[in-house]
Amino acid sequence: MAAKVHGQQAACSTITSLEKEGNATFSRPATAMSGEMDKPLISRRLVDSDGSLTEVPNKAPKVGILGSGDFARSLATRLVSSGFSVVVGSRNPKRTAGLFPSTAQVTFQEEAVSSPQVIFVAVFREHYSSLCCLGDQLAGKILVDVSNPTEKEHLQNHQSNAEYLASLFPACTVVKAFNVISAWALQSGPRDGNRQVLICSDQLEAKHTISEMARTMGFTPLDMGSLASAREIEAIPLRLFPSWKVPILLALGLFVCFYAYNFIRDVLHPYVRKHENKFYKMPLSVVNTTLPCVAYVMLSLVYLPGVLAAALQLRRGTKYQRFPDWLDHWLQHRKQIGLLSFFFGMLHALYSFCLPLRRSHRYDLVNLAVKQVLDNKTRLWVEEEVWRMEIYLSMGVLALGTLALLAVTSLPSIANSLNWKEFSFVQCQVTRPQAPGATITAEKNHYKFYLPPTFTLTLLLPCVIILAKGLFLLPCLRRRLTKIRRGWEKDGAVKFMLPADHVRGEKTSHV
Ligand code: NAP
Hints:
By secondary structure, the chain is an alpha/beta fold. Helices cover 52% and strands 10% of the residues. The two termini are 64 Å apart.
């Protein structure tokens, strides 16, 4: 049995080359492959229907791998664990054999590609041309392109790596697959990391073969169409949070603006007017005052595009006209903006917990106590301030809790378990009223340098949105908006009768 023969070969203490049916096959010392890489993640034994254990049949489909780098090693381990017979083609098999699982056969490239029908090309694009000498042996076989370009290569080459490989080997069928799976994910198994394998090829049968292989290895194949999609698939690992760029820049911009505003009011103003040194407030206190402002404005920006879209639909009298690009993008980024709002809210909560730990806070308390004694006052209790702070904290906790709800329900796994009505109920009804409430009682109306308090400024946008939402609740506007969202058009292209339960129509709107 081939697997057992290889196992015995692995027990040899030095690298030995074996002549087997005329093929030079290199094995490795037993110690070299001890550890994780050598351990099949799926047992070579299968459980029969009667519960007894049987060996995996040795007529396992043979798969070839060209290249002996990180990806090839992890791929070989996973293929062997999944019951495939693996033959690796290397330019120097003697040097690399010790790095592969004992059951994988490591040999020269020409020999490795002779018998398998499926061959993984685990080498970089710039080395594809060095494989051209294998053209005759590779004719009629499936080549799996796993390569990823660098950002520079992706911009420079208009032809994808897979299409380039196909142009070098016109007698082969090229399938693009597994490039979105890292060597680490392959080695540790699909339970840890991305499970989806995006696959594309011009040949349906080849695509089906590789999809089945991916499934056997524990991954989820996703058909991406013809080989022309390869460029798109190759761009995926190059992405760095593309949908987060604008929301993050927006949040940072808001943070800088509000920080500067608070700095002028809380640090610069006392310094200029009373020569008080309050610069120590910059790292913590000013940051903490800034965070909720950003959180509230960001939360308002989640709801504002919906209001603008509704106003635009009312003005146009139709829903069949595209929104301007900026509004379209804004609508698509609402989830990220909402999550960032939650992030800033969380930071504010953490910073607030740290406030009493500051030295300045302790000195302030002691100074206040001393002042009390000197002024001969026994009890300091300002009823109004006590109430203001109690309500402020309570509303703040409620606002953070509802923001957390909004964030949790926007996670794909949770959102998938909710129907649209449940989702929009949590996103629109539960979270909406909490936002402005927390700040109403927060600060006295002190103008410094003629600048209004930050929280007054922060409340402007939520108030405008609540006002607009209130306007849309007016029967005349609500009926018209409902009709438009059900397909009615001002110029009469669609004849429309509002059903009796028109409220239902309103709730299915996606804006
Ligand atoms: P690597 O460690 O540098 O291995 C590349 C292998 O290519 C070498 O070990 C070498 O094996 C072989 N090769 C064949 N012809 C060559 C030549 N003319 N010059 C130099 N080397 C040649 O790279 P890797 O990380 O395994 O990546 C291999 C491919 O997988 C790349 O296309 C990469 O984009 C893709 N990939 C990698 C990962 C990952 O996590 N590493 C993830 C997805 C995709 P021999 O010396 O034995 O011939």
